[in-house]
Amino acid sequence: MSDAAPGLPPAMPATGPAAAPRPVGPLLAGFVLDWAVAMVLLVVVSAGVATAWMVARTLAGVAPTGELDPMGQLLAAMAGVLVPALALYFWRRRADAGECLRSRQAAARPRTWLLSLLVGAGCFGFATGFSALASALGLEPVPSNLSVVEAGWQRWPVFLVLFAVLLAPAYEELLFRRVLFGRFLAGGRPWLGLLLSSLAFALVHEPPGLTANGLAGMLQLWLVYGVLGAAFAWVYWRTGTLWAALAAHALNNALALGSFLAGAA
To answer: Fewer CB within a 10 Å sphere, N or C end of the chain?
Structure first.
């Protein structure tokens, strides 16, 4: 099957001309190592930031409650993914001069941003429509980060917007698309990478065992996050620049946040 689509050039990986498929075993081993390192760093860094925030609040005279407040949760979540993303990028998947050049060339094409715009808006439309359908069937799971978003908007609206629309898309695209998906893209196995990186994306957003949702609700959220992750990976693959995936992700988050705030008003 051809990767070409009407009005679009053939898919061009950010790593250069399409490579011959490499053996799956070494690619899976690399993915498992990347994922294991990411998860260990996520847990350690998140716990460290959470502890440091609680100590700082106590020293500032805020009576300890034993629970991490929303700002602490936002900072822990941000650092917990940012540090693994940067560590794995520089250690395992750092871009060379050729990749950077191809990314700049792709970013200079107007069709790159048109595709990014369409996918970002389409992701928001899919998530909204799917949630409405599930709600009509009696399924209304609550995303694990909803309470943090609500509290963040009430107390730190500027930081919340910055976090949701710019910071989170940036470090999530670096980790899930550039590092995890990019390994398979460079190895000539993009579809396998799209599947695995999207699964990882879903699990991080709705960790099993750490959610109050039942099995049906958790599966619904995993499906939505997985489709979004796959769409962003496809944009990266199609355009050849991570900036396009980041822009699609940012647009989806901006629309989702705007929809949430409109509903809460």
So the answer is: N
